[in-house]
Amino acid sequence: MPARLLVRRVAECLLAGFAATVMASPDGGEEPYFESLPVVLTVARLPQPMQDTPGAVSVIDADLIAATGYRDLARLFRLVPGMQVAQERGNDQWVTYHGLGADYPNQMQILIDGRSVYSPYFFGGADWGALPLSTGDIDRIEVVRGSDSAAYGSNAFLGVINILTRHTAAEAGSSASVSLGNHGIADASARVVASRGPLGLRISARHQQDDGTSGLKDGRRINTLNVRGDLRLSDIDELGIIAGLSQGSRGQGFNGVLFDGSQPRDATHDDNHLHLRWRHSPTADEEWSLSWYHNRERARDAWQVDSHANLQGTLGGNPTLVAALLAAPRLRFDVNNNRDSRRHNIELQHRLRRSDTLQLLWGTEWRHDWLDADSLFHDGKSRSQHEWRLFGNAEWRMAEHWLWNAGAMVENIQRDRTRLAPRLFLNWQPQAAATFRIGYSGGWRQPSLFERTADVRIEDPTYGVLQIRHQGNPALKPQHIDAYELGFLGLLPGGRGNLDVRLFHERIKDYIVRRPASFSPVNTLDIIPPADGAALPTDIFQRILGGTRWDNARGTVRLTGLEYQLRLRLRPGSQILLNHAMIRASADDPLVSSSVAPYVASLTWLQDVGAWQSTLSVLRMGPSDAGNGFAGGQGFVVDAYTTLDWSLARRLRFGDQPVEFRLSGINLLGKHQELVHRPVEFLPEYRGDKAANPLEPQIHFSVSAQF
């Protein structure tokens, strides 16, 4: 059966079956059917019950975060339909929605309390391994599944992840925890909460440590410090201060790849931020907010290249080329991959409820990004970019059962013209426990500073430029999306759970891809003098290794599919969470469509029995050609895999102090590969069924206490 027909029939069955179930239940009228569904803030920047939002949204609350026992924040998104999450190594997470973004996923806006951590230095993506954030501070995570450029601009091309930390007034007390496990796992964290009069203060610190995966250079030692203060200035004014620091080192690289950023080494980072927010609420129906934040990211990543060290693997054992290059002088030189970036952002926002049927919001934002990276920009000059945005959203209840949501973002990013991202959704609520929605969203993703202006070269002090690895494309056009959605959100009879279904069709034009390109090294010397034998031209490395640049793909990328999330309460203390997405991707470039897994699913069973708590998750990921690096257009499909995560906890009290003992494990079904590093997989020793970076089971035991 064709994929499109399969999706349609499954969708028809789900929608018809659950619509009939809801319709058959008594008319809820005044009954608070949606009490169990939270009010969300992210989708339209308006506080809205989930049934009123213009698009699908998933919420991961603090209880679920704690129940999983996960050490890495990004792993949580495996429990969200449509999200595709993988690991190349122990300390790097690859997070996408609908699979696009092979090298460094940069199709989603990532926010922490509204502050963008979409990094200008991390190739336009998010560095999940270095976020200055303690998971114990998180109140909930809201994931907008679908383009949200109308509310957040260019970076929200495919959706938004908004991580919301807990207000100090909602804190229950201080806490501390320690964790020990295999592969050198040794974590510790502490949180201190205090309040005095109108001021609430929280200080949290965390140390995360492990040795990574056997046989890989991927251990980590990361320290994080966060401070949040909430000061009530008056009955209508509040000032918030959020600051954070993340410092540490992470193992990087693989053996065997010539001139690549894969040399085994330790890279360090030093990231910090300061975020100030003022809120003025003259009435319950109106709020002004003004925020400013500053992000600073510094990476120190340097190593030495030996031109003879990896010839056998890189050249595929070609005896002629290997012999010729071995005859040339041995070249050793330093690679400086250090990077510094800064961001300043100011935002003004005004929300107003005009009547019982109309809620409005407007705002404006200015941003300046600055990036200094010698390895990315050969001319040694820093890069910077200004951005301006003006946005608005309106929620209008046209009639008792009909709700309109309209929004738009006018955005100007330096070096490009002003662009408009619109959105229009209609929600039909025939019953108190059922909402159908249909809508359209349009958006743009601007090329990053790296994609437009990069100039990456391998250069020897004596022989000049040996290889031009990558060059940016100043003529690169923004990619554009037209996203259409049909959705359903409903409660099961008796309040036993809820179902969220989303049918989508997304068309992307001018999709940005990385392609091989021909460059000529600009050397003043034409010949490398041999140690013995025939002379070699200086462009020999360029001929062998080639180069790449970013370009706009031909034609249209189409993503069509179905995703749903079912929350089912079997009995008190027992809950099932099922997430499933089926996606059909088509594109003129087969490497684009093959980077999208055709399906992804998770089944989680949460069970409380007295003082015991258990969380069991089965995770399934379809096959895909997704990963890092470039290997001349070669594809390396990662097979579909199933894995198992389990966390078991026992709560006790010692006097008045609650203490929790927890045993957690991930990847419990054994080794498997989730992501490829293409230049490594191209080496002869890994061709066939052998994986260069298989992930292993991790098990750790933790003790946490509240004070």
What is the number of E strands? 41
Briefly note the CATH topology name: Maltoporin, Chain A
Q: What is the typical, i.e. mean, pLDDT?
A: 86
Tell me the number of helical segments per DSSP (H or I, 4 or more residues long): 9
Which band does the percent of strand residues land in? over 45%
- List unreliable stretches of 5+ residues: 13-34
- Specify the structural class: mainly beta
- Shape type: globular
The percent of residues in helical segments reads under 10%
Counting structural domains, the number is: 1
What would you say this structure looks like, in words?
With 707 residues, the protein is mostly beta strands. The protein has a single domain (3-301, 337-445, 477-511, 553-706), classed as Maltoporin, Chain A, CATH 2.40.170.20. The chain is globular and about 80 Å long. The longest helix is centred in the first third of the chain and has 22 residues, at 3-24. The termini are far apart.
